[in-house]
Amino acid sequence: MAGIYIHIPFCRKKCIYCDFYSIGTNGLEDAYIDAVIKECSLRRNELRNSPLKTIYIGGGTPSLLSPEQIGKIVKGIRSIFSLKSLIEFTIEVNPDDVTQEYISSIKELGINRVSMGIQSFVDSELTTINRRHNSLQAISAVDYIKNAGIDNISIDLIYGLPGQSLDSWLYSLSKAIALDVPHISCYSLSYEEGTRLYSLRERGLINECSEDDYISMYEVMVKELRNYGYEHYEVSNFAKNKKYSVHNSNYWNGEIYLGLGAAAHSYDGKSRSYNIANAKQYIDRISSSELACEYENLSEYERYNEYIMIRLRTTWGVDLNELQRLFEDRFHRHFVTSVDKFIKNELMLLNGTNYRLTERGIMVSDMIIRDLMFG
What we know:
The longest helix is centred in the middle third of the chain and has 17 residues, at 211-227. The chain has 15 helices and 17 strands. Helix 1 runs parallel beside helix 2 (67-80) and helix 1 (29-42) crosses helix 10. The model has no long low-confidence stretch (mean pLDDT 96). It is of the alpha/beta class. The chain folds into two domains: 2-251, Aldolase class I (TIM Barrel), CATH 3.20.20; 300-372, Arc Repressor Mutant, subunit A. It has helices at 29-42, 67-80, 100-107, 123-128, 135-147, 166-178, 196-202, 211-227, 246-252, 279-287, 300-311, 320-326, 329-344, 359-363, 365-372, and strands at 2-8, 10-11, 23-24, 52-59, 88-93, 113-119, 153-159, 183-188, 231-234, 237-239, 256-260, 265-267, 271-275, 293-297, 318-319, 348-351, 354-357.
C-alpha cells in the first residue's frame, strides 16, 4: 500500500511557532495546483504500482483553496491513479475557514477525514500565537463537519504555550474531550530557529515554560485523555476506537509515499526525496517537465536508526522478528544487547518479541532512542 501527501503552502497569517514552508496568498494558487497534478504524473512510477491507500492534503492552509480547486486536484490524481483501494482521504483545515457549505462540498469530492488545528480553547493564548480563529469558531467548525456526515475528525492542541498554565491546559483538554472527536493530537511547543517565536524568546519578550511545567502538562494530558477512552498510540497522538491516522501510521510503519508540492518529502523504502521549498521555482521547474526534488539514498545504518526512532514513538514498538527480516544480524545484536537496561528500569516493556516504551519511557524517549541507535 502507498500514500500521497500534497503540500499546500498558502497561508493568510503565519503562526509564530510554525517552521513549515508557507507563503501568503499571492495569485499562484491555480498555477501551483496545475504543477502538483503534473508532478504527480511525472513521478507516478515511484509508487511502484502499489495500491493507493491514503491521500493527505496538508499545509500551510489547504482550506484556503476553494472546493473547485480541491476538486481539480482530486480529478487530477484520479486520472493518474486508481482510487479503488483508498480508505482515508484527509484535508487539514483552519476553524475560521469552515462553513457548512464548504465541508459539504469537499465531502462530495471523497474527502472522509478532516484534521483541524485548534491549538487552544483559550482566546488569549490563540492571540499570542497569531492564530486567526477563536474558541467559538473552533467549536462551531466541529459541529459543521459532523453535520456534513464526516465523523473521522482529528483536532490538534499545543501545550507549553507562552502564558499557558496547567489550569488553562486542563481547560483546553476538557473542551476538546467534550467535542467527542475520535482523534486528538497534542504537541509540545518547540522553539525552532528562524521562527518568530524563537526570536521573541531570544529577545526576552516571552518566557518558555519550565521543564517541570512541560512534564506536568504531559502527565495530565495522558491521564485525562485515557480516562475518556483515548488510546495513546503514538507519542503525540490519541485515538478512540482504533481511529488511528492511517496516513501517519503508514509513515511510522515504513510504507512508501509520494510527496507532491513545494517542500514535500517522499520515501520509496530505500531513499528519500525533498522538493525545493520555493513555490515559484517549483512551478517553473515542474512546468518545464523537470523534477523539483533531490534524492538521498539511505544507508542501512540510516534506515535502522530511522526505524528505531519512528517505531519506538508508537504503540507498535519494535518487533525482533521484523528487525531480523529488515536488517543485518549486527543491528539485531546491537538492539538486543542495548535494550535490557531499559526493561529493568521499567522504561520499556517486552511482550513476546515486541519492545515498546512505557509511559515513563516516553518521557525520556530521546535518551533511549539515542542509546539504541547504531553508531
